[in-house]
Amino acid sequence: MPGIDDIDAMNAFLADQFPELEQSLGGYTVVELSPGHLTARLDAGSRHLRPGGTVSGPTLFAIADVTQWLAILTQIGPKALTVTTNLNINFLRKPQPGALLGKGSVLKLGKRLAVTEISILSEADGEAVAHATATYSIPQT
């Protein structure tokens, strides 16, 4: 099955298959993709902040998980039931409110599992605020 190779199609797939993401995260958008790679943007505002005024860990985790999942779909197509089996995240510095970019890549794609990584960057200065690796189970359909 060919992967999803169009930004508008990927954003439409996400809205259709995961509508609650807009309520929980709000403002997450795919901005660039190619086979095995995907970049998404989130304008982190007041709803994404923790006490102290920095972007919360759960927000960064959500960016990491969704972006890596979608990077896999650029290769395998619209298999919505591809699920996270493991995700490890390192928080590198305090992210300030504003635009964040998640740059996800597929490191290894097998028949049943995919291994991915992501760097989450502050768009303002290009500095990494988090890095994560993950493994996803691919449904056999």
TrEMBL record:
<dbReference type="InterPro" id="IPR029069">
    <property type="entry name" value="HotDog_dom_sf"/>
</dbReference>
<feature type="domain" description="Thioesterase">
    <location>
        <begin position="52"/>
        <end position="127"/>
    </location>
</feature>
<keyword id="KW-0378">Hydrolase</keyword>
<dbReference type="Pfam" id="PF03061">
    <property type="entry name" value="4HBT"/>
</dbReference>
<dbReference type="GO" id="GO:0005829">
    <property type="term" value="C:cytosol"/>
</dbReference>
<dbReference type="GO" id="GO:0061522">
    <property type="term" value="F:1,4-dihydroxy-2-naphthoyl-CoA thioesterase activity"/>
</dbReference>
<protein>
    <submittedName>
        <fullName>PaaI family thioesterase</fullName>
    </submittedName>
</protein>
<dbReference type="InterPro" id="IPR006683">
    <property type="entry name" value="Thioestr_dom"/>
</dbReference>
<dbReference type="InterPro" id="IPR003736">
    <property type="entry name" value="PAAI_dom"/>
</dbReference>
